[in-house]
Amino acid sequence: QYDEDEDSYFYTDEEEVEDDSIFAQNDKIKEFDENDINHIKIAIIGRTNVGKSSLLNALLGEERSVVSSVAGTTIDPIDESIYYEGYHITFVDTAGIRRRSKIKDIEKYALLRTEKVLENADIAILVIDAKEGIVELDEKIGGLIDKHKNGVIIVANKWDENSEEFHKFREEVYYRFKYLYFAPFIAISAKTGRNIDKL
User: Which of 45, 66, 67, 169 gives a 20 to 30 Å CA spacing to 33?
Assistant: First the structure.
């Protein structure tokens, strides 16, 4: 029957649908959205001050996200969308993650939001600082990606070393992130734009 106040249909006791019918499963079936096929959601994650906001700006080609040398400037994730070669791509510039001993209330909130972003993301860009190298916290953040089974690209930002150093660093990346063995690795400079097009 139709309920005008609720603008919806409902079943009376006499009309109750049997549990094994397809209609009884309607609420459990996600509606198909043909426009969503070409919509890729990308989470940009990493610890504080590795250049996530600078990377987002470089990918968008615009100064959309606040960039600062002060760690933890970006608190709430910032969504930005572009259309690229027929795909609708949404980038999410997530708040940086600090060591648990240094996390304040607002950063605990940011960590929870980062987890939420990964739950809904198709791909994660894991940003590490090439100058500082890989630290334990980077590995823990990488574990969040493994937990949520996202596709992933590992990005070493602030790269200005030569090719020989690149191969050494790449070996270390795959040694430290064994659980992300399938992930492509690329060294970039968000500041100068190096390898942004390739990414």
Answer: 45
Q: For 74-100, write each residue's pLDDT tens digit.
A: 655 567 888 888 888 888 766 666 665
Q: 42 phi and psi, to 5 degrees?
A: -120, 120
Whole-prediction pTM value? 0.72
Distances (CA, A) of 2 to 26, 128, 170: 17, 56, 62
Which residue intervals of 17-149 are DSSP H helices? Answer: 52-60, 105-120, 136-148
Higher-pLDDT residue of 162, 147: 147
Nearest 5°: phi and psi at 51? 105, 25
CA dist., res. 169 & res. 165, Å (int): 6
Burial of 43 (0-12, 13-18, 19+ CB in 10 A): buried
- C-alpha to C-alpha distance for 135 and 107, rounded to whole angstroms: 19
Least confident of 30-34, 47-51, 139-143: 30-34
CA distances from 69 to 49, 54, 74, 96, 110 (A): 7, 11, 11, 13, 18
d(CA 78, CA 93): 5
In this prediction, residues 44-62 reach a mean pLDDT of 87
User: Among 160, 127, 131, which residue's Cα sits nearest to residue 58?
Assistant: 127
Q: Round to whole Å and give the CA distance between 90 and 78.
A: 10
